[in-house]
């Protein structure tokens, strides 16, 4: 069932095609009280979600015959705490996912905006799914998890191997600004899972670590092994920032994670370490969470996270406006507690 | 049937659960020509609705077993006259309602943004439902009908009694700014209905009567009795504004209303009086309307409203940009005529 | 089937009413790589669509009995390349269409925002449907294809004749600014189709040809004849701009078009000529396209377009931000190539 709970079979002359063509309206609403202690204390409601970012979307598949399918997906984020969308003016948009494509024996081709193959290959090893205060901070600091104005290609699954590439047009006439190339390779076989990602983003980036940062080159590697009683995961990410004056610096991130089923729920824990190459600035983060499934669609959860900076580093918890309000001095620390409800439809 | 016309039964293994779990896409489109005479005349189309504010929403209930249910609602407003949403940048958002929660024998707990328990307890006595030019102006002047970043609790219905509270986090580190506490108590038994509301909103308010107003404390009381041939309603609201210099003033509002079924339609009339405590500024408003139901989902309507200020008061009709364009001098008056179509789906 | 693929029969006591009342969620996602050569070259993804502008909408019909129906439509545009909506702040809105109305033996009455009767009467003769780089530029230069704050009336179809009028309130107190009146008349009979449109838009227009342009008066005429092997079309448009100093100028546009079925697809070609009356500035545009239908809902396509200005004219191709980026000097030219996928649901 999962997220296709309002799966509407497309009306069609052929019962077979009907079974294979569908349009699904789906969504997630996830929020709850959060407490963040940084320089100061702040209490509030989680902005986009504690375990899954709140969203609303439509996706569809049409069987074109001969193994060919048309596919599309439109999905946007919702700030459940206030009802705001994620557009600059507070409106709802489809910037989580917006693509149209074809799928066949050759694999998948899609045009539009979507999560990069690189990000998808490795972010799945974060026990907290890069969401809520427990999220590892691998993918902050100017890293773009999504490509837009992009062409995406995925190979079919071949003996557990799958390869994906994104090419995002910068839409520039005189430079390569905003051009984005990413690659993701995954291997999944029984209990073993491995993922590798590579990104090259041509600068002019808002949110880059260094205001003058022009280019960002990343490679990341992760894996997990499911022992049954627990699933162990590890990941590494190396990001090189290069500005237009030729200066560069690297950010190295490490993560160890574990998830274990306990009753109708799951315990999750992660440890992350972040280190800048051009200074001794670094940080450690520890997260512990429990998700209790009330059904396949609904869960309640609690997460605790602690992040400590050293030598001038300024990593903060993934808590949006609350983390900003709580404040963080250089070398400071933040900790937080988050409880909430997640409901998928 | 009402608003659940696109009720989509959630696919489920259990036929019983299927009957009790659902996701519904619903909406209202309501607009029509409006004429407002203030300092000048202006003609145009009603912005958000003449009898029901135009909206689009999704709501759902999932049966979790043991009497427990997961619930959610996402709903946004639409300016049917232009197609604009209500976000600052003109986009559609979900700021009418955005919550996720649980319902059980203990009552209802919800997280997010929604109409306050106080507003819901009393606004239902306005024959015009606080919508269109006939609306009483009880809930203007900086009053917030919605709480956000909020935790809401409603008791079960006990012998007709129901109690609701909202606590809205201000999300501040150093003050109570924007913190919002409301309480609503209702009693409904046969023809008799009574509602009481209390609000305490900690200032820093945009739209407050006094630009320096910091705190707003409200209590409101209303009731109705259904005689069959007509339903009589009355309400009172007392709002105290207090600025950061310690100055305060009160706004007292009174309303008498009546609705009566006539053929396939309903006649509505209301008289309201508004009075400021720190001056002799006051105003009287009279509204008369007729709604003719073409079906359970569709109606045509006409409303006339007249509002006269005295001693420097500046209350205007509830007609959005048209009321603003028509203009209003201190102690002036506005009157208007509004016709339109309301369609719910 | 067409666009009503998620047609949700409205639940109703009467099976007959059920068949006649419906609410439909529908949409189009259309994008693909585009190359534009103006002063410079630029590559990117088509913004709103190469053959049909990407959109998401809801529309419904309710049978009220006695031949009367309630109707509504809410529809907004989507920039599939980035997921942005079309509101100023990037959010999704319903500014493509937003109306509620009644339909009966008397015709159709609608309140809200929609394409004008004038535009609809003639734009249908553009083989490229006023979409993508192949579109004729008849409807640029400050022309408003949509009316808002509007009352719309269409006659029933009488022996192939149909007449529509729009009246858009300017919502001004002291002037006729933004008032918009349009008229569209169509005749369709077997292979023959003729359409006539007239518009009068009272100025204060953003995007007008002349920054001081106050009033725009248009008449346009088009027709097509279907020979079977090919369908021939022609159109003429005459637009008069008048500023607040009494100066005026005219823009005359001519188009010849042809579409021909070829296999499972369709070849389209158009030639347009644009000429300003107050100078010798003029331009020629030639477009050639092929649309290959993979199903009734999905197509792949390719379009080539060439536009050459003379004597200082500055007409550009219909390619949004890519045409702007590619640049265009006075008397210059632009050409482009566009391929993509269109999927309707």
UniProtKB/TrEMBL annotation, chains A, B, C:
The main location class comes to membrane
Porin domain boundaries = 7-311
Report the locations given in the UniProt record: Cell outer membrane
Gene3D superfamilies reported for this sequence:
Porin
Q: Which UniProt keywords apply?
A: Cell outer membrane, Ion transport, Membrane, Porin, Signal, Transmembrane, Transmembrane beta strand, Transport
User: What is the residue range of the signal peptide feature?
Assistant: 1-19
InterPro entries annotated for this entry?
Gram-neg_bact_OMP, Gram_neg_porin_domain, Porin_dom_sf, Porin_Gram-ve, Porin_Neis
Q: How does it sit in the membrane?
A: Multi-pass membrane protein
Its subunit composition reads: Homotrimer.
What's the protein called, per UniProt? Porin
